[in-house]
Amino acid sequence: MAMADAFLPIFLDSLVTAWGAILISVTLILLFGEIIPQSVCSRYGLAIGATVATFVQVLTVETEGRLSILGELSHWSLLLGKSV
């Protein structure tokens, strides 16, 4: 999500003015990233969570191996810059 938040104003800057890009991106991120999810999940949060729980568990097991390797690589790349 953070990457989309960062690239939306850059993309919109080629279409509208800089102020317009900032205004549109902040409005869209606030609306679709905060207001709508809060209003939906405050009422139907438990039902939504129960519906997607199995999918999230399968996705977690499926990506665990790749992400643990990526985590180890990033850990060691950060340690290379430090003197121990």
From TrEMBL:
PANTHER family: CNNM TRANSMEMBRANE DOMAIN-CONTAINING PROTEIN, METAL TRANSPORTER CNNM
Transmembrane segments: 6-32, 44-61
Descriptive protein name: CNNM transmembrane domain-containing protein
Domain of life of the organism encoding this protein: Eukaryota
Pfam family name, one: CNNM
InterPro entries: ACDP, CNNM
Transferase in keyword set: no
Chain coiled-coil ranges: none
Residue ranges occupied by any CNNM transmembrane domain in the UniProt entry: 1-84
Gene Ontology BP annotations: intracellular manganese ion homeostasis; magnesium ion homeostasis
Lineage: Eukaryota, Viridiplantae, Streptophyta, Embryophyta, Tracheophyta
Keyword entries, A-Z: Membrane, Transmembrane, Transmembrane helix
One Gene Ontology CC term in the entry: membrane
